[in-house]
Design a protein that fits this description.
- The chain is 40% helix and 18% strand.
- The chain is an alpha+beta fold.
- A hairpin with a 2-residue loop joins β7 and β8 (88-89).
- α2 (70-82) runs antiparallel to α3.
């Protein structure tokens, strides 16, 4: 008899506006409850994402996966750019495992993907995500948020 929501679920819908080619901004926070990481992950309003990051030079994979896991992609981007959750730092391996988990979760307007598409997304980030992980903190963009003020505790 717990009022706690089930784990591994999106609690809010993914609502964005397009900024340019493959760049979107959240217009409302996206909140995800992760069983794997045992915490809630929130991508704030203003967070800039490219969703699933499926390379266009893989046309069959792009056609098969593009647009299928926006919410999971936003959550994964948040971890790749921040390298942390409210509980502390995360590894690249944990962030990639979270993509697999989140792509199988449901929520408001969010449908779960089957294991094959989740595996394809996970495999792609494991093989090709090292550069994005390394550059993530420098790419962290939350429009309307001043990183300098945040560092000073204001």
């Amino acid at each position: 008899e717990s009022s706690h929501p089930p784990m591994s679920a999106f609690l809010t819908p993914v609502i964005t506006e397009q900024l340019g080619a493959d760049r979107y901004r959240l217009v409302a926070p996206l909140q995800y409850e992760s069983d794997l990481l045992r915490c809630s992950i929130t991508a704030p309003t203003g967070f800039v994402t490219d969703f699933e990051s499926v390379p266009r030079w893989l046309p069959l994979t792009y056609a098969w996966l593009m647009g299928m896991a926006h919410a999971a992609g936003v959550t994964h981007d948040m971890l790749y750019q921040s390298h942390r959750t409210i509980l502390g730092e995360v590894t690249r391996s944990q962030a990639d495992a979270l993509l697999y988990e989140a792509a199988g979760a449901t929520g408001p307007g969010i449908e779960a993907l089957g294991w094959a598409k989740r595996w394809a997304l996970w495999s792609g980030v494991r093989v090709g995500g090292a550069g994005a992980w390394a550059s993530g903190p420098a790419r962290l963009t939350v429009l309307g948020w001043d990183r300098r003020k945040s560092r000073r505790g204001q």
